[in-house]
From TrEMBL:
It comes from the Eukaryota. InterPro entries: ARM-like, ARM-type_fold, TPR-like_helical_dom_sf, TPR_2, TPR_rpt, TTC12. TPR repeats lie at residues 177-210. This is TTC12 protein. Transmembrane segments: none annotated. Residues 45-63 have a biased composition (Basic and acidic residues). It comes from Rhabdornis inornatus. SMART domains: TPR. Residues 45-68 are annotated as: Disordered. Keywords: Repeat, TPR repeat. One of its GO terms (biological process) is sperm axoneme assembly. Pfam families: TPR_1, TPR_2. The keyword Repeat applies. One of its GO terms (cellular component) is centrosome.
Length: 707
């Protein structure tokens, strides 16, 4: 609800006027009542009021509302001369006169409103206010004049007057949306944010359809409030910054003064790191040559020393902390730091220093760059060819350094320039370290190792780097050695490593080379052993690796068939998820393609081939195509086609052979299976004829001949 009007006398006068209007309205209703008792009572009350009034006087028309009239008499009326009919006639005449005067005043008020509107459109807000005020002199209860004048006041930044007019408008019409809207604007300009929101909320209560307008208004208010708060905070920070700037300047002068010992400079650098803790102070630090601190020979000598004693280590750590404070979230400062002579090259040396404190703070500084694109761009201007090897070595650390190093690697590995730089040293430096880490997986930070494996897996997106890795016998041997050490009771960290290595192997098996052929049998054997693992994710990836390695070696196919792979795949097809089924049916299709024993075992463990028939209805075209291929291979066995009599096999194959799948292998394999089915067991032709599928069968014969 609006606040109380500021002019209390005007408010009281307005309320008295409204009460008089209500009294007269009640008398008129009583005089026209069909109830004679009510009518006589109203006449008596009217006579009493007239006698008390004595002589009539003209009321200002602006104090009335339409159809609410006061009795206007032109002289003293004697009570005994008034009868009921004459009194009603006088009242009616008076009401008509008042209505006429109101219409004239309303016409004048409307004309003045239009004059005000025209002045408003021309930007003459003072003239608009004058016209609206004249209109209100004619008709004080016209809501539009109040809201229009309030709008003009807003244009002249007279916000208090605008609020007062809006309050008057709401007394004329308590549901006036425009009044609440303009009042909200005025409160917003005065930074009365709670009152502003109350006005906008009232708008929504009156008309829920205005929700979008409400949201826009509230959003504007929130933004303005935030701007005001930010300015206030900036002012406070500026005041604090003046003090900090003075302190920073004094400390920079202290550090630049020559001839002091390391401890003196270390203390100054520490204090400086504590002083630079805002964007303003970062800028002041940069513009006052704070990054030229290495020009001090003592500081530079300690920072770049190959062998650092406790004093040099302390100074180096302090300097790294200062740079972190100066560069956090400030890309320009990050650029200036790397532009300092020798800094970028020295970062790699600090990472290799062997001093945990220095390594930890160096990693923290580099992380400020790697976590956003602009910082990575700055880093990649440097020579980072050694960084993959250096950062991967932190896998041996058992503290937070390992995670920090892997975070940086994860940030950088997606950058093409970094991948290119890594390729130069992949086979000579990175692979030996990587294979060593895999072999020693139980002695290193296993969570970090799993992430390092994932980083190398990301490198496989580059075809050249993937080919290098896939040809490395050492890499395959290390992967197998890690998988060999994976009993079911291994630690969660080790299982993460196994999962990551299987993913890397899947990526490498996109290649085809002699090394993969040589390792196909041991890889397949290791995958078979993992099928009993308790972690379903590991089992799924093991099936995926098997499905990719088997095409490289007939010997591997023979070994896994002997190892019972067909029965295991059927089990996974019955109970596995979509990805597991995709890998499992692909494995079966490879095995049944070259191994009669695999075909026989499939028919043995699934006599009516129900698993394959169910897969023909799958939504994944790759699964459907491989299922149709397996079925066509099994139909080469005696009795397989007869076992399918009475099933829905003909209908399923017809649907796929004559369908519009995107993969041609779906139609191809389904047509071949349909042809072999009818050749091996002619009784299926009767079902085919019922389904009008002879044309598809004829086309499938061509596929059979080509197969």
């Amino acid at each position: 609800p609006p606040a109380m009007l500021r002019d209390e006398d005007t408010e009281a006068e307005f309320q008295r006027f409204l009460r008089r209007v209500d009294d007269v309205t009640n008398l008129l209703q009583g005089l026209s009542s069909p109830d004679s008792a009510v009518r006589e009572k109203a006449i008596a009350e009217t006579e009493k009021r007239l006698q008390e009034q004595g002589a009539s006087r003209e009321e200002e028309e602006s104090r009335t509302t339409l159809n609410r009239t006061l009795i206007n008499t032109s002289g003293p009326v004697k009570a005994e001369a008034v009868d009921a009919d004459g009194f009603l006639a006088a009242l009616e005449k008076d009401a008509k006169e008042r209505a006429q005067r109101r219409r004239r005043n309303e016409q004048l008020a409307n004309a003045l409103k239009e004059q005000g509107n025209e002045a408003f459109r021309k930007g003459d807000f003072a003239l608009a206010i004058h016209s609206y005020s004249q209109g209100l002199d004619k008709l004080r209860d016209k809501q539009e004049l109040y809201t229009n004048r309030a709008q003009a006041y807003l244009k002249l930044h007279e916000y208090e007057k605008a609020i007062s007019d809006c309050e008057w408008a709401l007394k004329c019409n308590k549901n006036c949306l425009k009044a609440y809207f303009l009042m909200g604007k005025a409160h917003l300009a005065l930074q009365h944010f709670p009152e502003c929101r109350q006005c906008y909320e009232k708008m929504l209560q009156i008309d829920p359809q205005k929700e979008n307008l409400f949201k826009d208004c509230v959003n504007e208010a929130s933004l303005e409030e935030k701007r005001v708060r930010d300015e206030e905070r900036a002012e406070r920070e500026a005041q604090a910054g003046n003090v900090a700037a003075s302190s920073i300047q004094e400390l920079l002068q202290r550090i630049s003064s020559p001839g002091q010992d390391i401890l003196y400079y270390t203390g100054g650098i520490r204090l400086l790191a504590e002083a630079v803790n805002s964007c303003t102070e970062q800028t002041f630090f940069r513009t006052n040559n704070g990054f030229s601190i290495l020009r001090n020979e003592t500081v530079r000598g300690a920072f770049c020393a190959e062998s650092k004693g406790p004093a040099e280590v302390e100074l180096c750590v302090s300097l790294l902390l200062l740079w972190q404070a100066a560069c956090a979230g400030n890309e320009e400062n990050q650029r200036v730091l790397l532009a300092q002579a020798g800094v970028s090259a020295q970062l790699a040396e600090l990472l290799c220093s062997g001093t945990p404190q220095i390594q930890r703070e160096t990693l923290a500084l580099i992380s400020l760059y790697s976590e956003h694109k602009g910082g990575r761009r700055l880093l990649l201007r440097q020579d980072l060819s050694r960084w993959l090897q250096i950062l991967m070595a932190f896998v041996k650390s058992t503290d937070a350094r390992a995670d920090s190093a892997m975070n940086i690697l994860s940030d950088l590995i997606g950058e093409e320039r970094f991948q290119t730089q890594c390729g130069a040293m992949l086979s000579t430096d990175v692979l030996p370290l990587f294979t060593q880490l895999l072999v020693c997986a139980r002695q290193v930070n296993q969570a970090a190792l799993a992430r390092a494996v994932g980083v190398l897996g990301s490198l496989c997106a580059d075809v050249g780097l993937r080919a290098q890795l896939a040809q490395s016998r050492e890499c395959w041997q290390a992967c197998l050695q890690l998988l060999e050490g994976c009993p079911d009771a291994s630690s969660p960290g080790y299982q993460q490593c196994v999962f990551a290595v299987l993913g890397l192997m899947m990526n490498l098996l996109l290649e085809s080379n002699g090394t993969i052929q040589d390792f196909a049998v041991p890889i397949s054997g290791r995958c078979l052993a993992l099928f009993s693992h308790q972690d379903g994710r590991i089992v799924t990836r093991a099936i995926g690796v098997l499905s990719r390695v088997l095409p490289a070696s007939p010997s591997a196919v023979e070994e896994v068939v002997k190892g019972g792979v067909v029965k295991k795949m059927l089990k996974f097809l019955k109970a596995g998820g979509q990805l597991t089924c995709s890998y499992a049916i692909k494995t079966l299709s490879i095995c049944t393609k070259s191994s009669r024993r695999a075909q026989e075992e499939l028919l043995k463990w699934d006599k009516r081939l129900q698993v394959l028939l169910k897969l023909l209805e799958a939504g994944d075209e790759l699964v459907v195509g491989n299922a149709a291929f397996c079925l066509s291979q099994c139909l080469l066995l005696p009795g397989a086609a007869s076992a399918l009599l009475g099933s829905s096999v003909v209908q399923l194959l017809l649907r796929q052979a004559g369908g519009d799948a995107h993969r041609a292998s779906v139609q191809h394999n389904s047509a071949i299976a349909l042809g072999r089915l009818c050749v091996a067991e002619p009784r299926h032709i009767h079902q085919l004829r019922k389904l009008n599928g002879l044309a598809i069968l004829n086309s499938s014969m061509k596929y059979m001949q080509s197969s």
